[in-house]
Amino acid sequence: MAGSNPFLDGALRVLRQVANRALERATRPEPKRPTRRRTTTPKPKQPARPTTPAARGGSSGYPGDFTGKPNIVYQPHEDKRADPGEIVWTWVPYEEDHSEGKDRPVLLIAHDSTWLLGLQVTSQDHDRDRDQEARAGRYWVDIGTGEWDAQRRPSEARVNRIIRIDPDGVRRIGAILDEEIFRAVAREVRRYY
């Protein structure tokens, strides 16, 4: 056959086989399974965790990342409220799409009206790809290990993106960061703001 492409022919053959198997499974009747009587009380199902503040009942949504000059303070308190100097777990919007995000640790550094201000924390080692991160406009500083990470992995905080955090959206307080480390992070943040 003139003009045939062996790679394309093979790919189409595999695609056809996958489609046929999927069609067979979808149209095959389900086998009857014997019903079993439960002898214990089932646990109540936990509701799915919403992925955005608005889905959790927030009316205003995320106003965007903080871009002013933050008044960085170290004020952790041994209480149930989140304070600057503490690492908390909360919903963090993605930089490229604030309507999406994920639950992650954040180092709180300041307040902005009713919002807390924080820095994204990660256990990814950005020292290995420092140049690539810098080209992408992301700068990190090492903060060591702590109770915010169950596996006690070394962590880093991103110092050139300040995230607004709804205090009511804080899921848990992970740890109080050492004051000397906090001050080193604050110096790096001030380089960008």
Structure report:
With 193 residues, this protein is an alpha+beta fold. The protein has a domain at 68-192: Roll (SH3 type barrels), CATH 2.30.30. Helices cover 22% and strands 24% of the residues. It has helices spanning 6-27, 130-135, 179-192; strands at residues 86-93, 101-112, 115-122, 140-144, 155-158, 163-165, 170-176. Strands 1, 2, 3, 4, 5, 6 and 7 form a seven-stranded antiparallel β-sheet that branches. The longest helix has 22 residues, at 6-27. The termini are far apart. Residues 31-60 have low confidence and may be disordered.
Quick structural overview:
This protein is α+β, with helices and mostly antiparallel strands and 193 residues long.
Key structural traits:
193 residues; SH3 type barrels; 3 helices; Growth inhibitor PemK; PemK-like; DNA binding
The geometry reads as elongated
Compressed to H and E, one letter per element, the order equals HEEEHEEEEH
Strand portion, in percent?
Answer: 15-25%
How many runs of DSSP E, i.e. beta strands?
A: 7
Terminal Cα separation, in Å?
A: 65 Å
Mean pLDDT: 82
Low-confidence stretches: 31-60
**Structural class determined from secondary elements:** alpha+beta
- Give a short account of the largest sheet: 7 strands, antiparallel
Number of helices: 3
Approximate helicity band: 10-25%
Query: What is the CATH C-level name of one domain?
Result: Mainly Beta
For the record, the CATH architecture of one domain stands as Roll
The CATH topology of one domain comes to: SH3 type barrels
Evaluate the radius of gyration.
24 Å
GO molecular function, one term: DNA binding
Protein name: Growth inhibitor PemK
InterPro entries: PemK-like
Pfam families: PemK_toxin
